[in-house]
Amino acid sequence: MKIASKHPLLVGTAVLATIALGLYGCKNFLTDASAPQGTLDQGTLATAAGVEGTLIAAYRTLDCTTATNADGWGCAASNWVWGTVAADDAYKGSTLDDQPPINDVELYHWGTSNASTYLNTKWTNVYEGINRTNATLRLLKEVQAKSPGAITPADASSIEGEATFLRAHYHFEAWRMWGAIPYYREDDTDFRKPNLKASDVPTEILKDLDAAIAKLPAAPRNGEKGRVTSWTAKAYKGRVLVYTGQYAAAIPVLEDVKTNGPYKLATSFDQVWSGLSANRNTLEEIFAYQASVNDGEPNGDNGNYGERLNFPYSGSHFSCCGFNQPTQNLVNFFKTDAATGLPLVMVDSTTWNTDNDWFDAHDTAVPVDPRIDWTVGRDSVPYKDWGIFSLNDGWVRDTTNGGPYSPKKNAQEKASGAESTSAGWQPQQENSVHIHLYRYADMLLMLAEAYVEQGRLDDARLIVNQVRDRAAVKAQGCGDESVAAIYPACAGKTAMTEAMPAMTGGKSVLQMPWARYEIGEYATFPDQPYAREAVRTERRLELAMEGQRLFDLRRWSKNGSPGYAAARINGFLGIGTRPNGEGGGAEKTRRLFLAAAEPFQDKHLYYPIPSEQIDLSKVGGTPRLTQNPSW
């Protein structure tokens, strides 16, 4: 086990392999998980080291592992397939024939066998995480009974709290995917349980979060930054309450975290997704997959394995693979109003999305939110500190299929030293950039959302402006001396960031050779509908390409805005109930294959449960798992 004091919680392959053999060597784990077999059994692991190692294994399942990635990248910690490509933020990208199951996800054909393979990968991942958390709790009880002094009371309390929190998280992941899911605790021995009603699952998640809050310390155990704390669990509780529309209950929980907790926004937006050591484990990070490279794992697989397809193509340093490409709709969404610096979509809802042309460095007169160039790789714009993003040099794999843009948040900086040096496949795509599962800006915007729904519009406005003010601190700079060959103004300027001017009249403007960055504050939220849309708009701008978008759209449909997800997604596509698109544009005219998409309907508010899992749940030939409606 590799844990460095006061540093991120890291995982070594040898320990994972040993634990995996011990805990998951039995093929019939659905019925025999209480008696694991293999190289090690539960009795052998019933030591203090075995408990700690099993807990580390439970953290490790936050992202793809060798046990869960056999059928693709549905296990990625970021949910880029389920929350980003399945919404309006990204196309699958790459080529039509690469990872074809994602084609069906992108086109909302979720009931196909192709889609089911990826859905089963996600299901396997989250329930393996649950299995590991419960194994930790069983082992802890056994060690405490057999060797009362082997684990200190403080460590035992934290171990129990960490495992219980992770169990809540994994069930939350399953619940927001499928709604009606089975809930497993450590005393379950037969895993062929029926699913709970979707409305009943959050009650169980909140029980686990309350139990975790009571057990966890306020600071990470042993100073190891990746471990969860009572503040992590409190912030997550607020998240679940907002997800379920319990806004009045969420406000005091989130306000407590905001006022008394350890979190705050990173100084500038470029620090949020970063491989630079100074930017890891910032106070913005509530809960993250702590990707790790050059840690002894020979193939770099403790890195950001689930993200490794999502880099510019062969002409770039990264060499592969061109997936998860930002949509034209998303790029247009970053445009701002020249007079106020507010999102153009909030000022002109009818024409903000009319531009079908590739938005590149030639469009220097069009004002844009500076977050665009920390989120999207655009032609002839510096790509962090890797030089110029270039379509002519093959940075995009297939523009016909995926458009001209690439994801950017997940990429390490050249100067970071966060890249894998292993001999594994495409090691330049493996890095130690943390994958944010929940960060402080996300939490703040959830609090703003709750304020809006409770009529506290100015409190919501102040939070939105706080997030926008942070976005106005730094913009994409020259980043590399090679950029000066195209932009002479970059001669001698190699800093990756460029300071934005202080706001004047509630607005900050910075003209760079490749973009006019312009962002402003809201002077007022005149009414609740406007405030609601302003918060939702800010969530998309701030959290774009982070796997949150579809889950936001769906919960808003359930929490008082019926049909919201359908309106946004069908408008994005230009099909079904919104054949004319939204904001003056439709993706079916930009990526022609999207005309074959299935209109978003109520059944899409949850994914179908994988058929393989329904088959595995059978008792006497009758499945205990019930499929979601209309699938």
Structure description:
With 631 residues, the protein is mostly helical. The chain contains 21 helices and 13 strands. The strands form 6 sheets. A 3-stranded mixed sheet has the order 4-11-10, covered by helices on one side. The protein has a two-stranded antiparallel ribbon with strand order 1-3. Helix 8 (153-178) packs antiparallel against helix 9 (201-215) and helix 10 (230-243) runs antiparallel to helix 11.
Considering the chains and any ligands shown, give keywords for the structure.
disordered N terminus; two-stranded antiparallel ribbon; single chain; mainly alpha
Low-pLDDT sequence parts: 1-39
- Total of helices: 21
Strand content: 5-15%
Mean pLDDT, to the nearest integer, reads 93
Structural class: mainly alpha
Q: Rg from C-alpha positions?
A: 24 Å
Numbering strands along the chain, what is their spatial order in the largest sheet?
4-11-10
Distance between the termini: 43 Å
Question: How would a crystallographer describe the biggest sheet?
Answer: 3 strands, mixed
Write the layout of secondary structure elements.
Elements: H1 13-24, H2 29-32, H3 42-45, H4 48-60, H5 80-85, E1 90-93, H6 101-106, H7 113-146, H8 153-178, H9 201-215, H10 230-243, H11 247-260, E2 285-289, E3 323-326, H12 328-333, H13 344-347, E4 367-368, H14 372-375, E5 376-377, H15 399-402, E6 406-407, E7 435-439, H16 440-453, H17 457-471, E8 474-476, E9 497-499, E10 507-512, E11 515-520, H18 528-543, H19 549-558, H20 564-573, H21 611-616, E12 618-619, E13 622-623
Helix pairs in contact: 1-4, 4-7, 4-8, 7-8, 8-9, 8-10, 9-10, 10-11, 10-16, 11-16, 16-17, 16-18, 17-18, 19-20
